[in-house]
Amino acid sequence: MINDLKILLSGDAERIANWLVKPNYGRLLAYCLIILIGSGLYGFTLGIWRAPLQSTYTAIKFPLLIFLTCAGNAVVNGMLAQVLGSGLSFKQTSLAILMSFAIAAIILAGFSPITLFIWYNAPPLGSTTAILGHSVMLLSHVGAIAFAGIMANRRLFELLRRISGRDATARAVLFSWLAGNLFLGAQLSWNLRPFIGSPALAVQFLRDDPLRGNFYEAVWRAFHHLFL
User: Fold this and answer.
1) The dihedral sign for the CA sequence 125, 128, 130, 136
2) How far is the C-alpha of 161 from the C-alpha of 169, rounded, in Å?
């Protein structure tokens, strides 16, 4: 499995393409386990600013968010891969997306010490600048998650180029997958909130009004608190 991870993280297109042709269900379960552990560890650092209970909730919800995003985009991304001429079937597309999320989970697990450092130095919950602390945590995590997602998808570029035979097609498929994952993942994260937890609201597993507002408004408010 360690050797398989090295191949996956290096983006070895030839070997990964063979995995798509002959799927190994043991490897599939390993990817799910990597996502569960890596994203769960990172999820713990997401909620620690608010309270230990919130960090526990988020450690549970963050892997759920990734699996829901993967499942939600499986059909759409499969259709896009077909329309854009990638040469990938729906089954192969779903497996490739799962691989990218496994890579992202490893990257996020690696970010955990950094996000803990940011949490330790951010304005604490009980301070008069708690809103500023919340904004720091929110924007830091948005940046880390976006970076992990972009780099994870980037690792699939050589695979897409090898299968499609064209750079333009590979880029089009890659950007369409990335846009779909980021858009759906962002909105699902809002519906499954809280992840970080608001200083003015109680610690909860889910909010009572999950459909109120949207992710982009929250990011803009955090940006406004920090820079405007």
Assistant:
1) negative
2) 7
Q: Give Cα 158 to chain centroid, integer Å.
A: 21
CA angle 29-33-37, nearest 5°?
175
List Cα–Cα distances, 51 to 8, 109, 145, 203, in angstroms: 35, 20, 21, 8
CB atoms within 10 A of CB 27: 16
User: For residue 156, what is the DSSP state?
Assistant: T
Q: And the tokens for 44?
A: 């713990």
Sign, Cα dihedral of 58, 64, 66, 68? negative
CA 205 to CA 198: how far, in whole Å?
A: 12
Q: What is the mean pLDDT of the chain?
A: 88
Cα–Cα distance between 18 and 180 in angstroms, integer?
25
| pLDDT (tens digit per residue) in 118-170 | 999 998 888 888 888 889 998 999 999 999 999 998 888 888 888 888 888 88
Cα(223)–Cα(143) distance, rounded to whole angstroms? 12
Within 8 A by CB and 6+ apart from 61, the residues are 43, 192, 195, 205
What is the rounded CA–CA span in Å between residue 181 and residue 179? 6
The identity of residue 61, as a single letter, is: K
Average pLDDT of span 165-192: 87
